[in-house]
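Section 5.1 Outputs to date
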Amino acid sequence: MIEDQTVLEAKRIGVLGCKTGTTLGDAARYMVSEDVSALVVTDGEGCLAGIISRTDLLRAMLASSDWDVHPIDEYMIVDVVTVSPQTRLSQVAELLLQKHIHRVVVVRDDDGRRSPISVVSAGDLVYHMVKNM
C-alpha cells in the first residue's frame, strides 16, 4: 500500500538539476530536453540551493524580454519543501496538498548540509496509487 511505502522504497535515486548561476535559457532547454517540469538547483558543493520550475520560467519571461540570460538564482524558489528518505508516501501526499505544491525534494542530511537525492512529485504518487490498485 502507498501509505506504508517510504520515499526510498518507492522512488529511484537521482536528481535532474543544475547549479546556481546557470542561465534561465539553459535551464529551460534542459527541462525541455529531459521532459521535466522542474530542476533541483545545487550550490558548488552539491547542497540544495533551490528549485526552478516551468512556472518560474514563465514568471521570468513576463518580467523581462531577455529572461533567458538571467541566472536562475533570480527566479528560483529557495524555500524548498524537503523530506527525508524515510518519509512515508502518505506524508508526502499530505504535504503536497497542504502547501499547494507539485513536488518535494528528498534530501540526505550531512551534518546540516542538505544533499538532494531524489524528487517526488504528485505524478509519482498517482503512479504508485495505480500500481497498488
